[in-house]
From TrEMBL:
A molecular function GO annotation: acyl-CoA dehydrogenase activity
Alphabetized UniProt keyword annotations: Electron transport, FAD, Flavoprotein, Iron, Metal-binding, Oxidoreductase, Transport
Protein name (record): Rubredoxin-like domain-containing protein
Residue numbers of the full-length protein present here: 1 to 383 of 636
Family: Belongs to the acyl-CoA dehydrogenase family.
Domain of life: Bacteria
UniProt feature coiled coil, ranges: none
Cofactor(s) listed: FAD
Length: 383
């Protein structure tokens, strides 16, 4: 465990930061207010090789490591949490299951354009009756010989309806629980596959989020991902990695808010000196910096474990849980340091405070992260 980045990681950080400052930050408030997807920026992320950052070059990726991916999500989120999650959902949730479980044909057809950034990916797991209890999936895929017939729907799907390629989970064998769930690759544009309205969210408003609706969608047999009945495990394994992305997003949002607050604390004068030199504010800044350092170590070490192909479910859950919890605390403190000014629309810290909240909820609520962590500590309960 190195707990430290290399020169190459820091060069990548500088590259992504320069891009984020120039191409994303100037538009972040407008995109937040208008619920506007950063189409141009996402296209440029593809051109920079970031949309396939951890995938091998032979599949159109950049061939970099998981830590590089975490740094890229962190740096985008430092200026706009919405743009950060677009990359995270695309790389971790839309592309990774195809990389890890796809056939060579599936990888050539779907992973290559995803990794090149020519297509956007998404992940369809959550349903009205299957949120934290993902095993309660009700969408069905009935075997019809040469195809499956997909019926049902998904809610809260990040990157929908912008995404082109969806990894979707559906029941192929009813009444046997999680072992009856299978994964499929579904393309936008197929007959019977439509979208609900774009959600009007509290935060991460530059990212798009919509419902998926499946009405007798014919999914070719060759689009089954992995084996029949393997879907739940594919979903869980995918979320292990996805949680590193959300942890990085939370870390980046908190870092952005902290930097703004630090700068302001050096400038804003009250009682004859900058407020940063008043103990009430300096102690807050000290706590914020300490929490960020702890979170960064958890996130980067989880990324190192994934890269090393050793079990990392618990560590990614810890990273996601801790980074998102402190993101709420740090953004709250940042607004507090700005005082009334931080409560105004147009202030970065106001947007970051709203953006931080979702990181404690999606890709498994922080209560579910504790379930995952505790189950690793304790094993199965006695019968
Ligand atoms: N990797 C591989 N397999 C796993 C696994 C993992 N990490 N975790 C569990 N499994 C396997 C188990 O070994 C078990 O296998 P067997 O059938 O062979 O015994 C099987 O999966 C079922 O496991 P559990 O009994 O533990 O399953 P459960 O029904 O109790 O659920 C849970 C466990 C952790 C609560 C799970 O339902 C969960 O993670 N819920 C949260 C769902 C979630 O995170 N949703 C996020 C949606 S995506 C999103 O939010 C994206 C976005 O917007 C950006």
């Amino acid at each position: 465990m190195l707990f430290q980045t290399t020169e190459a990681h820091e060069a990548l950080r500088a590259k992504v930061r320069a891009f984020a400052e120039k191409e994303v930050k100037p538009h972040a408030f407008r995109m937040d207010q208008a619920n506007e997807f950063p189409t141009e920026a996402v296209k440029k992320l593809g051109e920079l090789g970031l949309m396939g950052i951890p995938y091998p070059t032979e599949y159109g990726g950049a061939g970099l490591d998981v830590l590089s991916y975490a740094i890229a999500v962190e740096e985008l989120s430092r200026v706009d949490g919405g743009t950060g999650v677009i990359l995270s959902a695309h790389v971790s949730l839309g592309s990774w299951p195809i990389f890890a479980f796809g056939t060579e044909e599936q990888k050539q057809k779907y992973l290559v354009p995803l990794a090149k950034g020519e297509k956007i990916g998404a992940f369809g797991l959550t349903e009205p009756n299957a949120g934290s209890d993902a095993g309660g999936t009700e969408t069905t895929a009935i075997d019809k010989g040469d195809h499956y017939l997909l019926n049902g729907g998904k809610i809260f799907i990040t990157n929908a309806p912008k995404a082109d390629i969806y990894v979707v989970f559906a029941v192929t064998t009813p009444d046997i629980g999680t072992r009856g769930i299978s994964a499929f690759i579904v393309e936008k544009g197929w007959e019977g596959f439509t979208f609900g309205d774009h959600y009007d969210k509290m935060g991460i408003r530059s990212s798009s989020t919509a419902e998926l609706i499946f009405n007798d969608v014919k999914v070719p047999k060759e689009n089954l991902l992995g084996k029949e009945g393997q879907g739940f495990k594919i979903a869980m394994a995918t979320l292990d990695g996805g949680r590193i992305g959300i942890a990085s997003q939370a870390l980046g949002i908190a870092q952005g808010a902290y930097e703004s607050a630090l700068e302001y604390a050096k400038e804003r004068v009250q009682f004859g000196k900058p407020i940063g030199f008043q103990q009430a504010i300096s102690f807050k800044l000290a706590d914020m910096a300490t929490k960020l350092r702890c979170a960064r170590m958890l996130v980067y070490s989880a990324a190192e474990l994934k890269e090393a192909h050793v079990p990392y479910s618990m560590e990614s859950a810890m990273a996601k849980m801790y980074a998102s919890d402190i993101a709420l605390e740090v953004t709250n403190d940042a607004v507090q340091i700005f005082g009334g000014t931080g409560f105004l629309k147009g202030m970065d810290v106001e947007r970051m405070y709203r953006d931080a909240k979702i990181t404690t909820i999606y890709e498994g609520t922080n209560e579910i992260q504790r379930v995952v962590i505790a189950s690793q500590l304790l094993g199965k309960p006695p019968k």
